[in-house]
Write a structure and sequence with these properties.
Layout (H helix, E strand, L loop, with lengths): L1 H16 L18 H11 L7 H13 L7 H10 L17 H11 L6 H6 L3 H10 L14 H14 L42
Helix pairs in contact: 3-4, 5-7
């Protein structure tokens, strides 16, 4: 009888331990705008959060990819990401639940076009293998797909993805050329004046 009671208590403890953390008041309730002030306030405040929610993570991911979040709510964000294969079709986690590293890893693999090993190439990115790939590439620290992020950890990952994200070939006329892109004619070093080219005098030998 006592052994059965012990098994029951242990099982309840395991169930309680598997419950996902919740974020009481996601920042997206107040800071989901696309104007520069809202975006700066979102990233700055997110860095101070102990846990990042699904809604906050997907809003941040859309800002990273598109420089804006066209969705009006959490359901719209999930739909946006599913339409790009950045979230599995069956993803149904709640907005206020702490984002899992495995779910975010799938989206990052899509953004960076990481195909992974043989298994991942066959079945596509799933949380377990996507997380392994990001750990291998040092985008994630050693972690499991079920772990979540603090705000600081999430921003660190977003920063690494931003550094590795492919640059779009389409640029507007007013958009500056990134420093990493070489122009056809290298610019002169600042403060350096190129000496004039002297014309060689031709001698008439006739």
């Amino acid at each position: 009888m006592r052994s059965n009671l012990f098994v029951l208590v242990a099982a309840l403890g395991l169930l309680g331990g598997c419950q996902a953390a919740k974020v009481a008041e996601p920042l997206t309730a107040e800071l989901a705008g696309n104007d520069p002030q809202s975006r700066v306030a979102f990233w700055h405040t997110l860095a101070e959060r102990p846990v990042v929610s699904n809604d906050e993570a997907w809003h941040g991911l859309l800002l990273l990819v598109d420089d804006q979040d066209p969705a009006e709510d959490y359901a719209g964000r999930v739909e946006q990401l599913k339409s790009r294969d950045m979230l599995p079709a069956g993803f149904d986690r709640p907005a206020d639940e702490a984002v899992r590293r495995g779910d975010l890893a799938i989206a990052i693999c899509r953004i960076l076009k990481i195909n992974g090993g043989v298994i991942m190439r066959i079945i596509g990115p799933i949380p377990r293998y996507a997380t392994r790939e990001l750990v291998y590439r040092e985008i994630y620290q050693i972690s499991s797909p079920q772990q979540t992020f603090s705000g600081t950890q999430f921003l660190a990952v977003i920063g690494r993805v931003e550094d590795l994200q492919p640059v779009s070939a389409v640029k507007t006329e007013t958009e500056p050329i990134p420093p990493s892109v070489e122009t056809t004619e290298p610019a002169t070093e600042p403060g350096k004046v190129e000496p004039p080219v002297e014309e060689q005098e031709t001698v008439d030998q006739s």
